[in-house]
Structure formats: structure tokens, C-alpha cells
Design a protein that fits this description.
Radius of gyration: 21 Å
Distance between the termini: 76 Å
Helix content: 25-40%
Low-confidence stretches: none
Structural class: alpha/beta
Largest sheet: 5 strands, parallel
Organism: Kineobactrum sediminis
Strand order of the largest sheet: 3-2-4-1-5
Number of strands: 10
Catalytic activity: cytidine(1402) in 16S rRNA + S-adenosyl-L-methionine = 2'-O-methylcytidine(1402) in 16S rRNA + S-adenosyl-L-homocysteine + H(+)
Family: Belongs to the methyltransferase superfamily. RsmI family.
Keywords: Cytoplasm, Methyltransferase, rRNA processing, S-adenosyl-L-methionine, Transferase
Enzyme class: transferase
Bound molecules: S-adenosylmethionine
């Protein structure tokens, strides 16, 4: 069936690729890949020799035309990113919109996603969750985002770069309070897979004490607000406590 197939690939363990993903990748006329050199290794492993085209959301018109021409000719295009599910903190949104607007079909081929994998083994509530992707890298913008999330009762899920995980945990303690339970999920499906759940203060100590915990690929999840906590900014909360002490 002609159309754009959004194909999830493994987040580490190659055994996580689905039979359908392999079939689609092998049968496609073109694979649009975030990074062709990266995806070449995956395709080689499974002896797939479908032609590839580099595609990301800032690609030029030429790259886009190649994909659209293939679809216009009744072909099958598979979209892959470096790891996991395309469009989830990965390129593809612009392409999916454009392809749909031109009247072509878009089919999901589901599979691995680091956020969902972490959540499923987190031990945190999963009935409601909010995927936040990457927090802003700058301290001010990151604190604003966390403060905006402080009242949220759903479990919060973040992607984080290893060199920022220690300071992000510190910022979370400041903005969300240190008692909230949180999860560090590192190197999921890989050799050094680690899942560690603890209150934010303890998790922060665990990470600070062992530089190995600041390596590799990381998902952070934090329990949502339980109701008792202060929703006001930390400085305001401190001020209120001081005022309360002064009152007769
Ligand atoms: N599209 C991908 C997905 O479906 O999970 C996510 C792409 S995003 C650019 C990459 C981030 O995902 C990493 O920085 C890390 O936060 C998270 N991630 C990817 N693979 C992971 C793994 N094996 N273990 C833990 N986190 C992972």
C-alpha cells in the first residue's frame, strides 16, 4: 500500500525491532532517515539494501521533493530516526503534516520508545502521564518550565542529556520539592541498563555520588503533585513561612 510508514527502530537492543518494521523497511522504495550513516548500520545488520535519503525537519526542498515524488509515483516511503519512534523528540512532524495535506496515507509501525519503556518499568503511576521531552538547557528557562509543571498531577517524563542530569535533578528539587518520587532510567535495553526509583533528594545524591550514573542515555520521570505540596514558587513559599512566623 503506497504511503509514508513511520517506522520505530530499537533504542539499543536490536532484538526489539518488529517483524513488520523489517518487512516495511525491506519492501520500501525509499527510506527517509534522520542520519543515513547511523541507519545504514541498522539496515546492514538486517541485510536490507533499500535506498536512503537524509531527512530532518530543516531539510531543504530537494530532500523533501525526493520523498514527495516517490509518494506521488505510488511508492512506499519509510521514515526512521536514529533510535526509537520518529517524531518523539525526533524529526518528522513537518513531513507527516505535508504528506497528509497532499492526500497521501501515513501509517504508524509502532515499536520502541524510551519514554514508554521507562514509564512501563518505573513503578510510578502510569494512568496519567505528561511527556515533556528535553527541558531547556539554560538554567532560567529550565526553572520556568519546571515551575509551570509544579501543579501538574500526572507523572512527568523527561529526556535528558547525561552531562546535565545532575543539575536538572537539583533544579527539580528546587521547583518541585525533594520528596517527590522520581526515576532515573539509563541505557534502557543495553548492557548497562539501570532503573533507580527514589525521592528526588535521594536520587540526586545517588547520581552525584557515582559519575557512571551521568553517562549514556537517560530518561527521568517524576511523580505528579499529590495535593499537599506548595504550588507557589519556592521564594514565595519561603516568604510565606517567614510571614507566618511573624504573625501573632
Ligand atoms: N525517538 C526516541 C524515542 O522514541 O525514544 C527519542 C529520541 S531523543 C533525540 C534521544 C533521547 O531519548 C536520549 O537523549 C534519551 O533521553 C532518550 N533515550 C533514547 N534511547 C534511550 C535508552 N536506550 N535509554 C534511556 N534513554 C534513551
Amino acid at each position: 500500500e503506497s504511503g509514508l510508514y513511520v517506522v520505530a527502530t530499537p533504542i539499543g537492543n536490536l532484538g526489539d525491532i518488529s517483524q513488520r518494521a523489517l518487512a516495511v523497511l525491506a519492501a520500501a522504495d525509499l527510506i527517509a532517515a534522520e542520519d543515513t550513516r547511523h541507519s545504514a548500520r541498522l539496515l546492514q545488520h538486517f541485510s536490507i539494501d533499500t535506498p536512503m535519503q537524509a531527512y530532518h525537519d530543516h531539510s531543504d526542498q530537494r530532500a523533501l521533493s525526493k520523498v514527495l515524488d516517490c509518494l506521488a509515483a505510488g511508492g512506499v516511503v519509510a521514515l526512521v530516526s536514529d533510535a526509537g519512534t520518529p517524531l518523539i523528540s525526533d524529526p518528522g512532524y513537518r513531513l507527516v503534516r505535508q504528506v497528509q495535506d497532499l492526500g497521501h496515507a501515513v501509517y504508524p509501525v509502532p515499536g520502541a520508545c524510551a519514554a514508554i519503556a521507562a514509564l512501563s518499568a518505573s513503578g510510578l503511576p502510569t494512568d496519567r502521564f505528561l511527556f515533556e521531552g528535553f527541558l531547556p538547557a539554560k538554567a532560567g528557562a529550565r526553572a520556568s518550565r519546571l515551575q509551570a509543571l509544579a501543579a501538574e498531577s500526572a507523572t512527568l517524563v523527561f529526556y535528558e542529556a547525561p552531562h546535565r542530569v545532575a543539575e536538572t535533578l537539583e533544579a527539580m528539587i528546587t521547583c518541585l520539592g525533594g520528596e517527590r518520587e522520581a526515576l532515573l532510567a539509563r541505557e534502557l535495553t543495553k548492557t548497562f541498563e539501570t532503573l533507580h526509583r527514589a525521592p528526588l533528594v535521594e536520587l540526586s545524591r545517588f547520581v552525584a555520588a557515582d559519575s557512571n550514573q551521568q553517562r549514556g542515555e537517560i530518561v527521568l520521570a517524576v511523580a505528579g503533585r499529590r495535593g499537599r505540596e506548595e504550588v507557589v514558587a519556592p521564594e514565595v513559599a519561603q516568604l510565606l513561612r517567614r510571614l507566618a512566623q511573624e504573625l501573632p
